[in-house]
Amino acid sequence: GPSKTQEEVNELARAALVNILCLPQTGINGISGSGVIIDSRGVILTNAHIGQYFLLRDYLTPGNVACTIRIGSPAQERYTATLLYLPSAWVEANASQLKAPKATGTGEHDYAFLLITGRTNAGASLPESFPRLEMDRGYADVGEEMLLAAYPAGFLSPEIVQKSLYASSALAYVTQLFSFSGKSTVDLFSIGGTVVSQSGSSGGAAVRLRDGKLGGIFVTATP
Questions:
Q1: Residues 170, 75: contact at Cβ < 8 Å?
Q2: What is the CB neighbour count within 10 angstroms for residue 149?
Q3: Distance (Å, rounded) from C-alpha 194 to C-alpha 189?
Q4: What is the tens place of the pLDDT at every residue in 163-178?
Q5: CB count, 10 Å around CB of 50?
């Protein structure tokens, strides 16, 4: 499509950006992550390590883990969602990470799809169509400029995360490309460190500045 201004790309990205907040009552740590709506019917692309919390709803005790989808800045709870897909290869490789204080991983298979199913405000109906970002079918290139959008929460207390978590955007360039298969496909690309690169930003959007398409989501931070 025609090129968009940086402001337009930022507006598109933020309209499709969500915060996923999962709060267990006992036994495991909660998580605040980011996600991107990629389908107007309310399909969210996020990380497997966030999506797994939707499988853990009744972990230890029934209803132990409550996940809500929040939007806006500061993030306000708005929707409920269900897990559509989580790669079994990721679960097999990472099940042990759940209780680790600092989860690590290469980012391989670290994606999941959620579907918005309802409103947290019981009487309200869902919008007919959700703002979304179109996924890029090509591969990122070194030097390409990306707009990053997420809900960084790395240094915030749980109280702040719940009451006043703000979306952030930053510009960065693709610095490295990685492939898990050794073939010519690009499975992972590295972007320069910015204020957005911290925990909580997982699942956030890396949007191609030249056309406003979703180039990738944040999966892992390298030391």
A1: no
A2: 27
A3: 15
A4: 999 998 888 877 766 6
A5: 25
